[in-house]
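Holo prediction. Input below; ligand is iron/sulfur cluster.
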Amino acid sequence: MGLLFTPYQIGSLETANRLVRSATAERMADPDGRPLPPLTELYEDLTRGGVGLIITGHMYVHPSGKAHDEMTGIHRDDLVPDLANLAQTVHDLGGRIVPQINHGGMNSLAETISEPMAPSAIDEPFLTRPAREMTPQEVETAVQSFADAARRCQQAGFDGVQIHAAHGYLISQFLSPYVNQRTDRWGGTAEKRMRFLRDVCSAVREQVGDEYPVLIKLGMEDGVEGGLSSEEGAGIVAALAGMGIDAVEISGGLGGWNKTLNVRKGIKSEAKEAYFVPLAREARRHAELPILVVGGFRSRSVMEKVLDDGFADYISLCRPLISEPDLPNQFKLGLKEKSRCLSANNCWAKEAGEGISCKCPHDRVLEKLKG
Ligand SMILES: Cc1cc2nc3c(=O)[nH]c(=O)nc-3n(C[C@H](O)[C@H](O)[C@H](O)COP(=O)(O)O)c2cc1C
Ligand code: SF4
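Structure of the complex:
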C-alpha cells in the first residue's frame, strides 16, 4: 500500500497525504509584492492536483530582503487581504497552505536591491555582487520583520508559517561560518551563529502563540569548504524543538550561482534522486519533529521507500509540480509512477510577467524515445 497517501499532521495542521509542494518562487506578484491572479490560479491547480500541503514561494519580510522582482511580499499589513484570498482559495478546495517567509540578505538581485547586506561583508564569485555588513540595528529590524510577517500569516488565515533558513538567504548566512565572520553576539561560535535563528524563532512565537504551526526549511550543510558542515547542521536540528519549531524540511546549499548541492540538474536515475535523504536520516537521529525532505524526488517508489524506512514523514517536491501540478493525483490513481521532470532547470522565468513554467522540451524527448 505505502504511506504516501495516508494522512499525517504537524501540530494542529492536518494533511490528507505526505506530499508537499516545496516553496517555489513563482514570480507572480506586482511591484508592491501584491499577488497577481496567475498565483491564485496556480494554487487552485496545485490543490485540485491533490498535493497535501502547499508551501508558497518565498515572501519577503522587509523591503531590504526582496530577493528578486515579482516576489510576493508579506512586509506590510495592507497586503493581508490579498494574502487572505490566496488562503481562502486553497481552503475552499479542501487544501492546506503555509507561506514561506524570507529575507534575501546577500542573495538579493541588483534588479531589487542596490546594496545587498549580509552578516559580514562578503565578495565571492558565486554571489551576483558584493554585500556589506549589517549593523546591529539592521539585525534587530530583520528579526522583528520575520515576527511581523508570521503574524500576517496568521491574520490572513494560513495554516502555519515556514521560516526560510536554507539556500544562502539571510538566516542561512548567519548560520554559515563561511559567510558569518561577525565578532558580536551574532557571530563566532556555532551557538553564536545560531543566535539570529533563535531570535527570529522566539520573536515569531511571541507573535503567533504556542499553537500556531511554525515550520522551518533548514540548510543542513553549505557544501562549500569552510561552510556549515552536516555535523553542525545536525546540532541545529537538535536545537529546533527548543526554539518552538514544529517541523523541519531538510535542504542544503548556499545558493547564489552555486547550484551544485541544491536544485541539482541531471536526475536521470533513481540513484540520483532523493539527494538530501542522507541529511534527513541524520536529522531523524537528532530530533523527534516531523521531517520533510526535498531534493530530486521523481519516482513514486523512491518516495514510498523513504517514508517506509522512516527517514522522513513528508516528501517535498518543487520541479515535478511545476511540470505537472496534478502529479499527486496521477500517482494516486495509478496513472503514473514517475514525474516527467527532466531536471534541466528551464523553469525559471526569463522575462517580466512570465512567471515560472515548465519549458523543457518534453515533446522532443518523447519523439526521440519513439525513434
Ligand atoms: C523555479 C524555482 C524556484 C524556487 N524557489 C524557492 C523558494 O522560493 N524557496 C525555497 O526554499 N526553495 C526554492 N526553490 C528550491 C526548491 O524548493 C527545491 O528545494 C529544489 O528545487 C529541489 O527540489 P526538486 O528536485 O523537487 O526541484 C526553487 C527552485 C526552483 C526550480
Ligand atoms: S522546465 Fe525542466 S526542470 Fe523545470 S519543471 Fe519543467 S521539466 Fe522540470
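Residues 8-370 form a domain with the TIM Barrel fold (CATH 3.20.20.70). That is the main takeaway for now.
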